[in-house]
């Protein structure tokens, strides 16, 4: 039953800035099931009830030649926007399907994928699109999630990549690989990260999903900040240390002394893995923690600042605005406005 009877679908969508924007690139003969599993939970999170307006989440459909593209089951999809991988997307999704279409993609598309990865835009590869990322060299020395039916060919063609067949998705080095039949887990983790717990619960409810069982499924990857993992052990150890000291960040030289490395070595490792220096990455972690506290607690901005290692509220506001384009107070108000829109009378 619809829990939002007073919402008029004819009314224009509220003028809220979306929490996430996703660009889908559909390859010819793409697997419709993969795409549907990823977009349907996001569609539920994007609006109140079943109205399907793109308020809190937005997405567009693209093809490489701006022409309609046909899925492997014969459904034809017309692009909603011209092919543009650099339109300020939070994620770009490449949807593959039949291997004949993704074994030998155009060199121009591979170059576009490399540029996209260099710009630190997360790339999601669905189904056989992981072959494209591997051919572009984006998975060298990394792990990826592959369907068991394609593992042998993938190993033979890309020996420098480690294919994994028992996980629902793998995020490694800015590439999030997801085989056929498992994209819903990825969608829910994206919603949890960008949209918050309230809308994640809404999606679970409407899709009739049992959250504890999903958490316990063998292939599910534990949640992690920004859906990212890093191969560099030094970066992993340092980030673990940073997360334990969000409220009291120490001078970096104390950290480097405990790790028995130089600051230059640490920054080189971080720049290679994250694109940021260690200090910038630590600040981003603290800002993300502040963002969670602004929506998950009633702490004052000054208290949030102290809990996240900022000297005072003014310091936090300055960096928060630079990182997210709005003040902490504006962010809290916007998220609570969203909560009032989507919270049903009875949970």
TrEMBL record:
<dbReference type="InterPro" id="IPR009057">
    <property type="entry name" value="Homeodomain-like_sf"/>
</dbReference>
<feature type="domain" description="HTH araC/xylS-type">
    <location>
        <begin position="236"/>
        <end position="334"/>
    </location>
</feature>
<keyword id="KW-0805">Transcription regulation</keyword>
<protein>
    <submittedName>
        <fullName>AraC family transcriptional regulator</fullName>
    </submittedName>
</protein>
<dbReference type="InterPro" id="IPR002818">
    <property type="entry name" value="DJ-1/PfpI"/>
</dbReference>
<dbReference type="GO" id="GO:0043565">
    <property type="term" value="F:sequence-specific DNA binding"/>
</dbReference>
<keyword id="KW-0804">Transcription</keyword>
<dbReference type="InterPro" id="IPR018060">
    <property type="entry name" value="HTH_AraC"/>
</dbReference>
<dbReference type="GO" id="GO:0003700">
    <property type="term" value="F:DNA-binding transcription factor activity"/>
</dbReference>
<dbReference type="InterPro" id="IPR029062">
    <property type="entry name" value="Class_I_gatase-like"/>
</dbReference>
<dbReference type="Pfam" id="PF01965">
    <property type="entry name" value="DJ-1_PfpI"/>
</dbReference>
<dbReference type="Pfam" id="PF12833">
    <property type="entry name" value="HTH_18"/>
</dbReference>
<dbReference type="InterPro" id="IPR052158">
    <property type="entry name" value="INH-QAR"/>
</dbReference>
